[in-house]
Amino acid sequence: MRTLHLTLRRLLLIGGFIILLLLAYAWLRQRPQDLPWTDLDLAQPIGLFTGRKLAALTGDTATCKALLDRAGVDYVAMDPGGADQCAYADAVRLRAEEGAIALAPSAVAPSCPVIAALKLWEWQVVQPAAQRIYGQPVRTIRHFGSYSCRRMYGRSQGDFSEHATADAIDVAAFVLKDGRSVSVLHDWKGEGKDAGFLRDVRDGACDLFSTVLSPDYNAAHRDHFHLDQAERGAMGGRACR
Known about the structure:
Blueprint: H1 2-29, H2 50-55, H3 61-70, E1 75-77, E2 92-94, E3 102-104, H4 112-134, E4 138-143, E5 168-176, E6 181-183, H5 184-187, H6 193-205, E7 211-213, E8 225-228, E9 239-240
Helix pairs in contact: 4-6
């Protein structure tokens, strides 16, 4: 009798495990963005591997541009430029679109993977947060630039910055539809709406960019968010501060 009970118990455990696997499989089939081997789709919600897939677009310009095209993003592909460690080949410049967030200055041309992440950030993080907190959308994102042939922190030695290949952008402020500005420099500290908004969009960026650095990181980032798509491999580390 005891042997029969043990056998039944094992069968129940195995059956329960199989049911859990089937439920997990069914759920994941509805969320391909949570699987590492599925193709990236900018129309899907942000998933567990969206950020890594965006970073993996570096060096695959054709795929990145095809993603922007399918998502209806209006852009101009820039000619390759720079040289050596400061060479870039996949920079794109957004065209003005009605209803879309404008970048200011508008001439900025980050790499295609950065633009793809910025658009997802706009659609699924920034605008939802703005509507929830302010009841209105963001009209403009002000920035400090993207491409800059320099080493990290402007040092004379050491690793080159992701800015050296246009794989980064520094975001300084958000201008709401009514014209009010919410800036990293002036509004990061405190407990009010503006500070909450800035923290929400910073945290959301961490799901899309390889590196997100804010005033929480150091004094050098007291006035901006540094967002980049550094390549660190499929299982490489990600930075969110």
